[in-house]
């Protein structure tokens, strides 16, 4: 192998190393951008989870307040009166006379609406 061929091969290798170095720099920049975006998304995710938990807590507090303020209406009064008169108000035996004993289904229905 002549000195000229060796010099050409070294020159080609130098060019290839330069191109690889440039590609490595590009990959390093892309990796840096991806890491920054990952961090930004993690922060946004953390922030959104906090907001979701706060909204969930507010909803639960509001629901407890609303549940306690529900006043039985006229329909509930009518069903309670029918039950006291001796008729079933449950979906199993609705409208049939009770046999002087309490019906668990009817009682459960009445307790749900209180």
From TrEMBL:
It is found in: Cytoplasm, Nucleoid. It holds the Pfam family YabA. Homotetramer. Interacts with both DnaA and DnaN, acting as a bridge between these two proteins. One of its GO terms (biological process) is negative regulation of DNA replication. InterPro entries: YabA. Its cofactor is Zn(2+). This is Replication initiation control protein YabA. The lineage of its organism: Bacteria, Bacillati, Bacillota, Bacilli, Bacillales. Residues 17-58 form a coiled coil. Involved in control of chromosome replication initiation. Inhibits the cooperative binding of DnaA to the oriC region, thus negatively regulating initiation of chromosome replication. Inhibits the ability of DnaA-ATP to form a helix on DNA; does not disassemble preformed DnaA-DNA helices. Decreases the residence time of DnaA on the chromosome at its binding sites (oriC, replication forks and promoter-binding sites). Tethers DnaA to the replication machinery via the DNA polymerase beta sliding clamp subunit (dnaN). Zn(2+) binds at residues 88, 90, 103, 106.
């Amino acid at each position: 192998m002549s000195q000229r061929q060796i010099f050409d091969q070294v020159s080609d290798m130098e060019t290839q190393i330069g191109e690889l170095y440039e590609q490595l720099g590009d990959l390093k920049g892309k990796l840096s951008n991806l890491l920054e975006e990952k961090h930004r998304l993690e922060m946004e995710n953390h922030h959104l989870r906090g907001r979701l938990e706060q909204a969930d807590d507010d909803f639960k507090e509001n629901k407890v307040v609303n549940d306690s303020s529900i006043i039985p209406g006229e329909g509930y009064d009518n069903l309670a009166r029918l039950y006291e008169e001796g008729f079933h108000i449950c979906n199993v035996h609705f409208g049939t006379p009770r046999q002087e004993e309490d019906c668990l289904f009817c009682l459960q229905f009445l307790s749900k609406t209180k």
